# Entry
Amino acid sequence: MTTPNERLRVGARWRLLVAFQCTWRRATQAGALRTMMRGSLVICLLVLGLALGCGQKSSDNLASTGNGPTPPNPGPNEPPTGAELVQADVRHTLNAVYGGDLETVLKFTHPKIIEQLGGPAQAKTTLQNTLNQVSAAGMKIESLTFPATPRFTNSAIHDFAVVPTKLVLFANGQRVESLNYQFGVREVAQTNWTYIEGSRISTENVRTFFPDFPSGFEFPRVYRKKL
# Structure
């Protein structure tokens, strides 16, 4: 059983996250891409958003919360499918965030974010500080599932992947469920994907990040709620 002081500390952590999310949303609506991609606030949103998403709170009917379809496992001599590869990437990244594995998080972070943070050295320092905050907050993954099969599209320059996730986090007796997605990008003919937290990527703003993104793509809905 948690004490009143513990409950106050947990509540303060969730309120801080909501404040980060509101700042991100206002910056996006104002078109201030450069501002919102700079500094420790962005890294906090990148890391915490990987789990909780930066989308609005919403009721249960915004999106399905079932486990949904997942790709079949390959046989022992079969290579993994594209869907399995990006899901594995996302799982590794989330486990790295909550396990304090800085190098893995950096490996899967899109270069646009690294560049806006001042390059690899500065990004590494800022991200390490944020992972330390995540650890100090005692946040742990209770469960991670993939509620829908990843969807892919491409341009002449880039391949794109949208990887839906359903995550339950636990911290000091409180649980939060997030339906979210990760936005994967790689150059055509390349092998490795990197990712941007997806809930602030939408039809309206995706070409601010990637002018070559194909038109007509429908992004998944997202939600976040306390359990």
Strands lie at 140-145, 151-154, 158-171, 174-187, 194-197, 223-226. The chain has eight helices and six strands.
